[in-house]
Amino acid sequence: MGVIDGSEEQARWLDDGEMAAWRSYIEGSALLEHRLNRELQAAHNLSIADYEILVRLSEQPGRQQRMSELARDVAHSKSRISHQIRRLENAELVRRNDCLEDGRGVLAVLTDRGLEVLRTAAPTHVAGVREHFIDLLEPAEKQVLAAVFERLRTRLHDRPDA
Asked: Do you know which InterPro entries this protein is assigned to (predicted)?
């Protein structure tokens, strides 16, 4: 257990197999995100976080979504999403509109220019996802990963502060 030997707290320590799985996930997901981000930055001057926001908005009716819902959907804080939207606004890829339904909310709206940037960047992103992830997996592994991460996503969305 290394530096944690002698801890007085009772913990369910990870066994060797669990630790190997956890570390592989941490390192592999960080490397994958870094690679996909680098490819989008190099080809389109777009971060993977910004790309994800453009994708989410493109999937919404009217290409718009409440900022609070968008933050939840991309697993960002409200302050982080606000900062990202401000940068995307400066690039004229997104604009903010007041929510007419209640007057309190703010909508992020994908602009025509934002949609065009997304359409141009999407093939680069999909090629990277295929090369660095999807094409490395057997069909059964894809099903298992989808089930595992859907369970994780659902649990963490349902219990965000637990």
From this structure: HTH_MarR-typ, MarR/SlyA-like, WH-like_DNA-bd_sf, WH_DNA-bd_sf
Phi then psi for residue 66, to 5 deg, are: -60, 140
Cα separations in angstroms, 160 against 5, 68, 72? 31, 14, 10
Query: How many angstroms separate the CA atoms of 8 and 4, rounded?
Result: 9
Question: What's this model's pTM, rounded to 2 decimal places?
Answer: 0.85
- Mean pLDDT across 137-148: 96
For the segment(s) 15-127, the CATH number from 2.130.10.10, 1.10.10.10, 3.40.190.10, 1.10.300.10 is 1.10.10.10
Q: Average pLDDT of the chain?
A: 91
- Burial class for 161, CB neighbours closer than 10 Å (0-12, 13-18, 19+): exposed
Q: In 45-77, which residue ranges form alpha helices assigned H by DSSP?
A: 48-58, 67-73
